Amino acid sequence: MKNRISEQIQIRFRDTDAMGHVNNAVYITYFEMVRIKLFKEIFGWDSSYRMLNTAPVIAAMNSCNYRVPLFIGTKVKAQCCVSKIGKKSFTIFTEIIGEDGTVYADGQTVIVFYDYSLEKSIDIPQKYRTALERFTCK
What is the DSSP letter of 47? Predict the structure, then answer.
């Protein structure tokens, strides 16, 4: 989909639990995998992933809606877009989707711009607001 970042997910045996499906906590890691790809686009990260000098952000909230159990061997991707841009934070909407279009999970992550030296939130700088707008959900 336009304005969305996607990342293929390789489901590993260690991602599963005693029930044989992907453990609930692992979905947040899948969300993070595609979020990092989004951050590379927005913040211009190189392969070092050093962020404090280029993107002072912190995750404030994660949520996940588990729609359909996900099993090893299922081919899925994570895709995300920016669903809301506020004064100091933005929200990322993420879906885990199968090749056939099945939505296995979806959720949101709230990211806050943060001054680590002052230990407080800050307004989103205009250059990042502009970059975020390129990836708004449509």
Answer: T
